[in-house]
Automatic annotation (TrEMBL), chain A:
It is a multi-pass membrane protein. SUPFAM superfamilies: MetI-like. PANTHER family: DIPEPTIDE TRANSPORT SYSTEM PERMEASE PROTEIN DPPB-RELATED. Gene3D superfamilies: MetI-like (1.10.3720.10). The chain crosses the membrane at residues 97-121, 133-158, 178-198, 234-260, 280-305. This is ABC transporter permease.
UniProtKB/TrEMBL annotation, chain B:
Gene3D superfamilies: P-loop containing nucleotide triphosphate hydrolases (3.40.50.300). Belongs to the ABC transporter superfamily. This is ABC transporter ATP-binding protein. It is found in: Cell inner membrane.
Amino acid sequence: MGILIRFLSQALPTLLGAVTILFLLLRMIPGDPAQAMLGADATAADLARLRQDLGLDQPLWVQYGVFLRSFVVGDWGNSIVTKTPALERVLEALPSTLMLCVAAIVLIIAISLPAGVVSAVRRDSWVDYGVSLVVFLLMSMPQFWLGLLLLLVLSYWLDWFPIFGAGEAGDLLSQLHHLVLPSLTLAAGFLGLVTRLTRSSMLEVLGRDYVRTARAKGLREPVVIVKHALRNALLSVVTVIGLTMGQLLGGAVIVEVVFARPGVGTMIWDAILQRDYPQVQAGVAVFAALFIATNFLTDLLYGLLNPRIRV
Amino acid sequence: MALLAVSNLATEFKTQAGPRRAVDGVSFAVERGEVLGIVGESGSGKSVTALSIMGLIDPQVGRIAGGSISFDGQDLVGLRLAELQALRGRRISMIFQEPLSALNPCYTIGDQIGEVFVAHGDGAGPATRGRVLELLKLVHIPDPEGILRRYPHEISGGMRQRAMIAMALAYTPDLLIADEPTTALDVTIQAQVLNLIDRLRRELKLAVMLITHDIGIVAQYADRVAVMYGGRIVETGPAETLLIAPQHPYTIGLLASVPRLGTGRSRERLREIPGTVPSITELVPGCRFAPRCAHRMARCGEQAPPLEARAAGHDAACWWTGAA
Ligand SMILES: Nc1ncnc2c1ncn2[C@@H]1O[C@H](COP(=O)(O)OP(=O)(O)OP(=O)(O)O)[C@@H](O)[C@H]1O
Ligand SMILES: [Mg+2]
């Protein structure tokens, strides 16, 4: 019940705001959609007719109303290039993108949490310094550059990983093989952030009284560190991982393009190049919805993890 | 032989100026069934002494630099971590000043008490649950079944401290270290909790180290008293004689700042001794209390006075002998 109220009061308005901004942005892009759709050799009459069909001759607020209405009823128009429903194409490309994002999150959690915990527990040791150095390198490297570097070394020179694509449909092993470099590249930008955050929250939590109590009870160090310290440190780590989801989705676009990997990102990219506005609109709207959904889930997860705000 | 015999304990911390001693040559003993009150102002080294006994000085910032801690014939200094862990929570337990921060906000009271049994190899299960319930009854928690499922923030400060005590008593330890167990509590709750500890030590024959900065509490509950100042014990003796005939000007000052023994809090009144406890980075030559002492003599600033007998079992570290 409380969840429903929170969903209605938080997620829905945010989604509305996001599609409104999307609407305005698309109208601000220089160039005439009608011209782009019909090509350079279209006649003035054709252009005028198409503008009328698309409602582009109406005042902006009318266009907005029409846009909202069709958005709500799920009529998101057809791709100009393929003439198929735009939303359908997005949903077809979505699993590949989700797989990439989930793989990246799994990598972030599997690498950053242990690295952060170890460097906090062994602070000022060589392990800690080593982790800090790697974190520093990762955080100062642009994503596309790292992606290209990995491609060059691991795929082109060493031939360990495929250069592009997402793998054979139905062949999980091939798909995972194709997933390694893109997800690593996508994760890279966040590994540093999450490691550093885990380290600092662990350091803070390790100094808390209840950690001392845990030791005073005779608990062994692994239990003290994981059950008592990490559990509390996770509260802030989870929030930040959730908040970086937006950037992760944005990063997925770049990674998909660099690795020529089919997905919503490459689709939006191609659609932009082809001035396929309905397609861009559908792709970005689904991304916005995903982003809002992850934030909402993060909130729920935080509530589950923290008994003090549990309702 | 005493259950606990601390001898010449020195505990130091890393500071910018190099290692500095927070506890500097402390010796005392606690017998079974006895309450030793350790009293002194904030920063005098009471908690560091307690944590040293527990082996809980964070090796990243400090270490035991010397001395021995003999517990039931075994020296705890230099003991392997696994051996210390086997003692903690089982034969030596500790409760802390602020029960809210000393309990983990993410776990229920039942879980946190039951954990002691798990840590010492007794596993979780219905039997453990029964033992936890018994402990909660032992410390007079009303509705133990309900409290079991509560999180620390959901119960009152007094209940939290009772839960902490229950946790500390899981295995009926030989030694209970209570570090300012009631400072964070209301005066009425304070008395309840202290009476509880007193009752338990009689019923369970616990040795208790009762740390406090309230000399009124010491007067009421301790058999023997050690007064700490600047990381040293400046006076020690049986509660009756020490409180009636204090020898050290610091003890006299502490007592003078309490208008009537055993009433109320003394945090403000303790400040009536002018000045403050030196920090561990301040190097005070000679007697560390000298800068604040009304009976200061030239010698005090040069030579630290040793603990010397003033009466049977009653020692003081002071060059001034005018109190006798
Ligand atoms: N981890 C630490 N690092 C550096 N110095 C410390 C540390 N812990 C304690 N000290 C110092 O040791 C001295 C004694 O501290 P301690 O906590 O034992 O005082 P206390 O007598 O328990 O006082 P309180 O009544 O405030 O609890 C203080 O000067 C304190 O600053
Ligand atoms: Mg203390």
